[in-house]
């Protein structure tokens, strides 16, 4: 029989687990989960980590659990505190896997004040009727603190890790960072601590790739806040408690959120195309040639590195890595059955895994009789939050010299935009499609 | 019909638009870098800096005002999905 990959619930200890003096883990294990938020596979299940911090004048509860696991959470909490002692509840992230037990906790702990980020406050109405807890909800930002009597919690505003509301909470006297989803992973192991559990490096990197990577600029901003801290342990909202060499995990995030390619001052323009009869390929070559005319030399005005890729020649993933690093993206697709072709959509649907906001985008392509692909790609690029400043080029069947010239101009205009040398234009809205 | 001019600073384009147009209608058509989420004035994704001509936009609704406050929006920032152009010249820049 194969050895179990996950420590089972039968090994689950029912009590709270001491993490540091006056600090307990009171979360829940979910070893049987096999996919999370639809977008992640969870071979080892997950844990919903919640913590309690005891001070001289009150107890703080940091995060709760998914609703179906509330009973275990409350049981563990009751082993180390009375509800009347709870003065503080902190929610570092309000997604349902962390807020499932929150309304009931606030009902059971009538003295507790809830602390969430300023961004979270208006979102709470999606979880419960805030009127029920009127006067008990406080929005906090970086530098705000809560006194528990002899020890205090400090908040760090770390938005978009991975929602607008996310924050971290710092217990300075013990050097503990309650990091929410940041630095977490889906890896259920009842041995709990990183020096005791199985090898979870894959889960840690996989979690980063699917949850944090689209927000890597925000990851870097959060690391700027966290790196100066005298960390003794990181207590994330999922996965093992990182008490052995916690800085290794911070360094790993720094490496993962850095550029995957060698960088210099050159702007990069990536042109991706797919072609049935060669017309869209030749349009792509014209776009690239046009971009080259604006590319310049490696002088003070900068330069553009133009690259051309046939989508048919690769799985989407390597292209996604390229696009993450590119400054501009131009997509060429023929129109078949009134649509862009599937490999183009496969690539475009993969881009939610990376941050493409603010990059420049454009589209072109050949068609038989209707040519819907170009506006559909432009619309998708806009929805991905790219800027699409130049109207795309469509050509029926074999492009004419004028249409090749338009492709040439498209490439040149996008390259000029990249270099900040695009001419200012004045246009009438009525002339826009 | 009265006209207004909106300049999108990030792409260097000025658009002549009819009075009454919302920023979202023109920024999407021209391909500026303002990004949209809910498009209903709730999520604050389209928060936009009004570089000049703030007075040439209709005053924010109660809902927009609340969302701007909730999200700690700096002065002279608006939701592009809500902000209606009245006339004159306006210069905007995505946040």
Strand and helix map with partners:
The complex is a heterodimer of chains A (433) and B (95).
Chain A: E1 17-20, E2 23-25, E3 28-30, E4 35-36, E5 40-41, E6 46-48, E7 51-54, E8 59-62, H1 70-78, E9 86-90, H2 96-99, H3 102-108, E10 113-117, E11 137-140, E12 145-147, E13 152-157, E14 167-171, E15 176-180, H4 201-212, H5 216-226, E16 233-236, H6 246-256, E17 267-273, H7 279-295, E18 304-310, H8 316-325, E19 328-332, H9 342-349, E20 360-367, H10 373-383, E21 393-396, H11 401-418, E22 425-428
Parallel strand pairs in A: 8-9, 9-10, 10-11, 15-16, 17-18, 17-19, 19-20, 20-21
Antiparallel strand pairs in A: 1-2, 2-7, 3-6, 4-5, 7-8, 12-13, 13-14, 14-15
Helix pairs in contact in A: 7-11
Chain B: E1 3-8, E2 13-18, H1 23-30, E3 47-52, H2 62-70, E4 77-79, E5 88-94
Largest interface here, residues on each chain?
Answer: A-B, 23 and 24 residues
Classification by helices and strands of chain B: alpha+beta
Instruction: Provide the domain count of chain A.
Output: 2
The major pleated sheet of chain B works out as: 5 strands, mixed
Low-confidence stretches of chain B: none
Quaternary organization = heterodimer
Task: State the strand order across the main sheet of chain A.
Answer: 1-2-7-8-9-10-11
In total, how many beta strands of chain A?
Answer: 22
CATH class category label of chain B:
Alpha Beta
Distance between the termini of chain B: 31 Å
* Beta-strand percentage range of chain A: 15-25%
Feature tags:
heterodimer; A: 433 residues; alpha/beta; Metallo-beta-lactamase, Chain A; 2 domains; 7-stranded mixed sheet; 5-stranded mixed sheet; 11 helices; 22 strands; B: 95 residues; alpha+beta; Ubiquitin-like (UB roll); 2 helices; 5 strands; globular
Explain what this protein looks like in three dimensions.
The complex is a heterodimer of chains A (433) and B (95). Chain A has 433 residues and is an alpha/beta fold. In chain A, α7 crosses α11. Chain A has eleven helices and 22 strands. Chain A starts with 16 loop residues before the first strand and ends in a 5-residue tail after the last strand. Chain A has two domains: 9-256, 4-Layer Sandwich (Metallo-beta-lactamase, Chain A), CATH 3.60.15; 267-418, Flavodoxin domain (Rossmann fold, 3-Layer(aba) Sandwich). Chain A is elongated. Chain B is globular, with a radius of gyration of 12 Å. Chains A and B meet through β22 of A and β2 and α1 of B.
């Amino acid at each position: 029989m194969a050895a179990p990959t996950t420590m089972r619930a039968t090994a689950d200890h029912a009590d709270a687990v001491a993490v540091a003096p006056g600090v307990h883990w009171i979360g829940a294990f979910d070893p049987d989960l096999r996919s999370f938020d639809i977008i992640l596979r969870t071979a080892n299940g997950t844990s919903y980590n919640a913590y309690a911090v005891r001070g001289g004048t009150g107890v703080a509860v940091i995060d709760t659990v998914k609703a179906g696991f509330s009973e275990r959470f409350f049981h563990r909490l009751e082993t180390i505190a009375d509800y009347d002692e709870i003065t503080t509840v902190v929610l570092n992230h309000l997604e349902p896997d962390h807020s499932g037990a929150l309304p009931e906790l606030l009902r059971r702990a009538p003295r507790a004040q809830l602390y969430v980020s300023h961004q979270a406050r208006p979102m709470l109405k999606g979880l419960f009727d805030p009127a029920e807890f009127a006067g008990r909800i406080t929005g906090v930002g970086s530098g705000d603190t809560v006194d528990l009597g002899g020890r205090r919690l400090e908040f760090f505003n770390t938005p978009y890790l991975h929602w607008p509301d996310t924050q971290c909470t710092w217990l300075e006297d013990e050097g503990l960072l309650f990091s929410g989803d940041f630095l977490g992973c889906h890896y259920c192991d009842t041995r709990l601590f990183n020096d005791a559990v199985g090898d979870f490096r894959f889960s840690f990197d996989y979690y980063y790739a699917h949850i944090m990577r689209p927000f890597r600029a925000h990851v870097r901003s959060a690391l700027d806040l966290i790196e100066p801290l005298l960390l003794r342990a990181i207590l994330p909202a999922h996965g093992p408690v990182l008490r052995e060499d916690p800085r290794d995990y911070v360094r790993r995030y720094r490496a993962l959120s850095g550029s995957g390619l060698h960088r210099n001052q050159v702007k990069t323009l990536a042109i991706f195309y797919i072609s049935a009869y060669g017309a869209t390929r030749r349009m792509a070559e014209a776009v690239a040639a046009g971009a080259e005319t604006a590319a310049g030399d490696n002088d003070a005005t900068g330069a553009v590195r133009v690259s051309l890729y046939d989508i048919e020649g690769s799985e989407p993933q390597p292209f996604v890595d390229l696009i993450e690093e590119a400054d501009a993206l131009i997509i060429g697709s023929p129109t078949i059955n009134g649509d862009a072709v599937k490999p183009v959509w496969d690539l475009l649907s993969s881009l939610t895994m990376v941050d493409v906001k603010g990059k420049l985008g454009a589209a072109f392509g050949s068609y038989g009789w209707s040519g819907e692909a170009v506006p559909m790609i432009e619309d998708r690029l806009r929805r991905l939050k790219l800027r699409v400043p130049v109207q795309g080029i469509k050509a029926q069947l074999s492009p004419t010299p004028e249409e090749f010239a338009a492709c040439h101009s498209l490439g040149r205009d996008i390259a000029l935009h990249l270099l900040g040398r695009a001419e200012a234009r004045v246009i009438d809205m009525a002339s826009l499609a | 019909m009265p006209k207004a001019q909106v300049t999108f600073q990030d792409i260097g384009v000025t658009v002549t638009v009819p009075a009454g147009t919302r920023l979202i209608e023109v920024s999407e058509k021209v391909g500026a870098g303002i990004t949209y989420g809910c498009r209903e004035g709730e999520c604050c994704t389209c928060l936009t800096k009004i570089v000049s001509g703030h007075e040439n936009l209709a005053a924010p609704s109660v809902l927009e005002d609340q969302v701007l406050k909730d999200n700690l929006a700096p002065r002279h920032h608006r939701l592009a999905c809500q902000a209606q152009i009245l006339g004159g010249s306006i210069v905007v820049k995505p946040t």
